[in-house]
Amino acid sequence: MFKRISLFLLTNILVVLTIGIITSVLGVRQYVTESGINYTALLVFSFIVGFTGAIISLLISRWSAKQLMGVRVLNPNDATLTAEERHLVQMVYRLCEKAGMKVMPEVGIYDSPEVNAFATGPSKNKSLVAVSSGLLQKMDDDAVEGVLAHEVAHIVNGDMVTMTLLQGIINTFVVFLSRLLAYAVSQFVREDIAWIVQFVTMIVLDILFSILGSLVVFAHSRHREFHADAGGAQLAGRNKMVHALRSLQQTVELVDTSDKQVAAFKISGGGAKMLRLFSTHPPLEDRIARLEKGM
Predict the structure, then answer these.
(1) Are 97 and 52 in contact (CB under 8 A)?
(2) Burial level of 65, CB count in 10 A (0-12/13-18/19+)?
(3) Which residues pair with 117 in a beta bridge?
(4) SS3 246
(5) Which stretches in the chain have pLDDT values below 50?
(6) pLDDT tens, 150-206?
(7) How many C-beta neighbours within 10 Å does residue 18 have?
(8) How far apart are CA 266 and CA 247, in angstroms?
(9) Model confidence over 13-40: pLDDT tens digits?
(10) By CB neighbour count within 10 A (0-12 exposed, 13-18 middle, 19+ buried), where does 64 fall?
């Protein structure tokens, strides 16, 4: 759901900005020559920075999700687990075994009234499935199983790795264009402040272009949601998957309703057409229709 994408994008932007700032402060600008920009050198530099940022974001995705969301990982061998918590772990493990996974993901709960769940991690062998306390409170057992099957399908499909490759390409263009334009802008100011203008412009453009580039990631995410729904239907059964989505329709207003600006990104995928460009998920009615048609 939304958490998987938002945490990855936020981490990626911060990592790329950090790398960009460090390389600039240290004077790593071999792409700037006496005659101007060396485009080949800039492209190579952008590729290295772009994919380094995406890969680091992937590698720390599970850790950052735990820290930012306050996920409490459930140890299946912990005798103090409640019956509900033990049942949640067993349900995830059963779905993962059915999907052919050899190494079970970490299973966790984070305290929030929102109805949400997400899966993240750098690989199938190092993954995390987390659900909100609100989801467990508001959904029945069949709906929870459908949601979990959807998240397990994301892991099996390798969606985080695919997203990393896509983000690496986007980062490459972001770094390339921001530095090219920042250099161009610096040529119109006095030489003694040119470096400062170039540095500030680069940071601003890095952020702006990263936000624009996220539209491509959101579009890819919407496409992959249909595949995860289909995978979830195979694992839990089509009826449970449809039931889970219908349950989400009934409870979607509980997902971070206090933040109207963020609400447009959430699991419903609804809203105005322009806002849908920033949605990580297609409208629930479209997902239900696709499942009911057997697509």
Answers:
(1) no
(2) buried
(3) 131
(4) helix
(5) 1, 254-270
(6) 999 999 999 999 999 999 999 999 999 999 999 999 989 998 898 899 999 999 999
(7) 12
(8) 15
(9) 889 989 888 888 777 767 887 778 889 9
(10) middle
Which amino acid, one-letter code, is at 91?
M
- pLDDT confidence of residue 256: 45
Q: Are 12 and 120 in contact (CB under 8 A)?
A: no
DSSP 123: E
Q: Contact, 203 vs 106, CB < 8 A? A: no
Q: CB under 8 Å to 78, separation ≥6 — which residues?
A: none
The residues, any chain, with a CB within 8 Å of residue 67's CB and separated by 6 or more, are none
pTM here is 0.85
The half-sphere exposure of 211 on its side-chain side, counting CA atoms within 13 A, is 5
User: What is the dihedral sign for C-alpha 87, 90, 95, 98?
Assistant: negative
Q: What average pLDDT does the chain have?
A: 87
User: Pick the catalytic residue: 85, 114, 145, 151?
Assistant: 151
- Picking from 118, 156, 158, 109, the residue whose alpha carbon sits closest to that of residue 137 is 109
- For residue 238 the two structure tokens come to 């089509």
Residue type for 292, please? E
* Residue spans of beta strands (DSSP E) within the chain: 32-33, 36-37, 72-73, 106-110, 117-123, 126-132
Clarify whether 292 is annotated catalytic: no
């119109």: which residue's tokens? 188
